[in-house]
Design goal:
single chain; about 325 residues; alpha/beta; Rossmann fold; five-stranded parallel beta sheet; 14 helices; elongated
Length: about 325
């Protein structure tokens, strides 16, 4: 990383939402919540485990705003928040406060290339900018006030990859002094160690969680039968919905398994006999959950996954 604080190292695709898959279904109830949140609350927190469609939801929201008309929601255009959205997909390297702040500035510069100029000058003047993250955020807030006067949103995706307390301290400082025209959206697999209780108490926080993001029965039917063209019966749909509890990624993976079965009868048999860990689902869990744990945590999970004794009443 360069002393000037330039983000030449940043992969530019991290500054844009990922493209939507062809089988994405409309989720107007969630997009309408987002539209309301961005006009009413400084912070929107989307917190749910892997595979619940957090990134997809936000990418669909960005697609609507960029297009300037509803694609997936029912909210009339004149009720929408302003069409300025900055995006930053976080990575583990952003646990370095300097990396994180440079990524933040790079995202904001997508809205105005002058934003963050003073903050970046401060980088070059500090012997240890990582220890001065709050000071840099303060200067960045002033930069935002001067260069981004119109309402806008900044989306931080995958905040669960951040564990560094100094980064969270910088975010807390930003949230406490957030410019009135700025709205922050955070997507994460678990609630971050931010001052969420204080924000809730002040009515400054909108939240979407697992219960909101899981597919309803109608959404599961729309995805499986209209997007994936499986032609499942109502009974099969009900069984799959019950088995997966509306977990979107498991329905996507099971759809891939069902597509390899040519007959409706065969698909019904598959659903009836469905094990809790279909191979595709297991591979996803192994890659997204187990393999991301520390070796000590993986060893603990292995040791405790099969009990040597079980007390029946428990």
């Amino acid at each position: 990383m360069q002393a000037s604080g330039r983000a030449d190292w940043l992969v530019q695709t991290r500054l844009h939402p990922p493209p939507l898959c062809g089988d994405v279904i409309p989720r107007p109830r969630l997009l309408d919540v987002l539209h309301t949140a961005l006009t009413s609350y400084p912070l929107t927190l989307i917190s749910a485990p892997a595979g619940y469609g957090k990134t997809t939801l936000l990418a669909a929201y960005c697609a609507e705003v960029q297009r300037g008309e509803p694609l997936f929601s029912s909210t009339p255009l004149h009720f929408r928040p302003p069409a300025q959205i900055a995006w930053l997909s976080l990575e583990e390297e952003d646990n370095d406060p300097v990396h994180f702040l440079n990524g933040l500035i790079a995202a904001l510069r997508c809205l105005n290339s002058a934003c963050g100029t003073t903050a970046q000058m401060l980088f070059s003047s500090l012997p240890n900018p990582s220890a001065e993250a709050r000071r840099i955020v303060g200067v960045l807030i002033n930069d935002i006030l001067e260069t981004l006067p119109d309402p806008f949103a900044l989306i931080l995706d995958d905040l669960h990859l951040i564990t560094e307390p100094a980064v969270f301290a910088a975010l807390d400082y930003l949230l406490e002094r957030l410019p009135p025209q700025m709205h922050l959206v955070i997507a994460t697999r678990h609630d971050p160690p931010l001052a969420l209780a204080r924000l809730r108490a002040r009515g400054r926080l909108a939240e979407l969680g697992l219960a909101d993001l899981r597919f309803s029965g109608d959404e599961a039917s729309l995805f499986l039968n209209e997007r994936r063209h499986l032609g499942l019966s109502p009974a099969d749909l009900t069984a799959l919905q019950a088995r997966t509890e509306g977990w979107p990624v498991s329905l996507r993976l099971l759809a891939s398994s069902l597509e390899r079965i040519p007959t409706p009868t065969g698909r019904t048999v598959f659903i009836t006999d469905l094990a809790q860990t279909d191979r595709y689902v297991f591979d996803y869990l192994a890659d997204e959950v187990l393999n991301r744990q520390d070796p000590e945590v993986r060893a603990f999970l292995l040791e405790t996954s099969i009990l040597s004794e079980l007390t029946a009443p428990l």
